[in-house]
Specification:
Two copies of one chain form a homodimer.
Chain A (H helix, E strand, L loop, with lengths): L3 H8 L3 H8 L7 H14 L5 H8 L4 E7 L4 H16 L3 E7 L2 H13 L5 E4 L7 H7 L5 E4 L8 E6 L1 H14 L5 E5 L5 H16 L9 E3 L4 H12 L7 E4 L2 H13 L9 E3 L16 E3 L2 H16 L9 E4 L2 E3 L10
Parallel strand pairs in A: 1-2, 1-3, 3-4, 4-5, 5-11, 6-7, 6-8, 8-9
Antiparallel strand pairs in A: 10-12
The structure holds a DNA duplex (30 and 30 nucleotides).
Chain lengths: 335, 335
DNA sequence: ATATCAAATGTAAACGTTTACACTTTAATA
DNA sequence: TATTAAAGTGTAAACGTTTACATTTGATAT
């Protein structure tokens, strides 16, 4: 591989001049610039990015830390981010993590080892935010679906609260009073917020909350199935269920079918996220659409903003609006 | 951020010794090792990975180039790769690309700029393999779903041919003779291979191929819908359709419904991939299961093998077996 | 022709590591 | 005790860039 020295020698100039050409410095005459460019082409030279990084302290790389889970959700967010930052010549390195310790370890190593200029963190179950705030001091970060604030961060979060409130209210409008809730993974930010929205809708309607109608899942279809089974086994089971995500709602529909309960007549079931399968289940799932790809694009833009130095003017928090998608599983007729 | 110099000074040793401690060199006494380790902990020191890379010429990074598409397929492969290589302290940088030029540009820049030690390339529509072979000479690469051979590569490919043959033969066993095929994106390797399998099954059964029963799609649901509409408009339309992937098969089912054709009675429809939605469509889709996550893991292991230097013993080509998944859309009864 | 100044170019240090080689200490052997 | 080998440590160059500063070149004004 050709280095800047080879180019300099062949073009008969110093390496400084070659460097200036590479970096479009105006302080080089047109004539030499052309000569150097020609040699660069001949030798197929590309500046070694590692050496550049050592000097300039910039890697043009953004680190992403995401949960290790099969998920349309994460995949689309990542796609959105990559699309945006790649246009600005940034690269993206992805780490996935199984648990919080894992996450923090990777995070710190990426940070301290100088591998990335900024990071995108998707750690929906983070608990030790104090430690995080300390290690991320003055480092550009965007948090996705986690409401944390550090000295140079912004949080991009879904409007879980209002989405959940809307879809729960919709069930109430259908006349339901005994509405069950299936929680997502413990400590998960989205799940907690959706639960708050659910409670708020109940409160608005003057329905007193009953823990009898709550069950715990972990966002998987199987857990939704189990949770629904549990709810259905109550003495007076709920007539409607709101699951904290679509996968669990689909599991709940399976559970209803298993017990020969008709959805939506015997029990209405709704979810959250609008994953692609939701259109196709029988009955089609009423849910809340999250514009996942767009979230990724926004996240990408924000991290670029942080990195471009205009630190002061970056938003601290962005809330992504969310849309009710009415299909059949709530009891609405064909539209 | 603390550097090796700071550590050396504080521990009262030379930077060489610190370096030796970092790299677990045996040539350092237990006593000094402990002292240095303590200082490292105190100062929260981590070696700068960029500087290390400049010296050692290794970045501990693997580059992935993937098509920019929403796809369970790609997402799972990537997840599989990350899971495996992360365990060996490798990082992963992902680029997505819209078209072939795009791909090649990114590829070359990653390569020449010294950013990655090896690459995973998913370029199912690559045409200019000569150029590719030239620029990848002696560089560790694994191709996914592309049958190319360079001096240090291996190709990991799905057994598209046999999968397609099996599912087509299954339709033939159901008594179908007029079987349509919906192609995927033009030049796509998987699509071409699946087409070959389809033809082979027809030939085996003594059915002469008819271009009347072929239509072109691009792997999206919409394109499947359109292609199926085209097939159905023939004077004597096919009684069965094999779409080159599940998304298009699902589109085809929609098309059948639009024309009030019963699936599978009026027309049987099958796909390929077994995406998660396929279980849920009505009727549930008969298809070919591709163990996508496992493909990712295999790819990860192979690239690690290439990088670990045991170059000679790495397979040139790995074919992933594939499994027929019989559901209802082919005409089979409830199992 | 000379002095002045701007523009162009070159020199060399710096970035934070690794590592070959040289040197010093320690321990073992005669 | 003197000699030698082994183990431990340090010195300095190297990796491929960028960039402050110094130097050279060329043009312009006198």
């Amino acid at each position: 591989m050709a280095t800047i020295k080879d180019v300099a020698k062949k073009a008969g100039v110093s390496i400084a001049t070659v460097s200036r050409v590479i970096n479009n410095s105006p302080k080089v005459s047109e004539k030499t610039r052309q000569r150097v460019l020609e040699v660069i082409r001949e030798l197929n030279f590309m500046p070694n990015i590692i050496a550049q990084g050592l000097q300039t302290k910039r890697t043009n790389t953004i680190g992403l830390i995401f949960p290790d889970a099969t998920s349309y959700y994460f995949a689309e967010i990542i796609r959105g981010i990559i699309g945006v930052v790649q246009k600005q010549k940034y690269h993206v390195v992805i780490s996935s993590s199984h648990d919080e310790n894992d996450e923090l370890r990777t995070l710190i190593s990426m940070l301290q080892s100088g591998r990335v200029d900024g990071m995108v963190l998707m750690m929906p179950t983070i608990t030790d935010s104090k430690f995080l705030k300390h290690t991320l001091k003055n480092f550009p970060v965007v948090f996705v679906c986690t409401n944390i604030k550090t000295s140079r961060s912004t949080s991009v979060i879904i409007d879980n609260f209002n989405g959940a409130k809307k879809v729960t209210s919709h069930l109430i409008e259908h006349g339901h009073r005994r509405i069950g809730f299936i929680h997502g993974s413990p400590n998960n930010f989205d799940s907690r917020e959706r639960y708050r929205g659910y409670l708020s809708a109940l409160a608005n309607a003057g329905i007193s909350k009953s823990e009898l109608y709550e069950a715990r899942g972990n966002f998987t279809e199987q857990s939704g199935f189990n949770a629904a089974m549990e709810l259905f086994s109550q003495p007076s089971p709920p007539t409607a269920i709101f699951a904290a995500n679509d996968s669990m709602a689909i599991g709940a529909i399976e559970a209803a079918k298993r017990l020969s309960l008709n959805v939506p007549n015997d029990v209405a079931i709704v979810g959250f996220d609008d994953i692609s399968t939701s259109r196709y289940v029988e009955p089609a799932l009423t849910t809340v659409r999250v514009p996942v790809f767009e979230v990724g694009e926004i996240v990408g833009k924000i991290i670029l903003k942080h990195l471009s130095g205009e630190g002061g003017s970056v938003e601290e928090k962005i809330v992504i609006p969310v849309e009710l998608v009415v299909r059949k599983s709530c009891g609405c007729k064909e539209s």
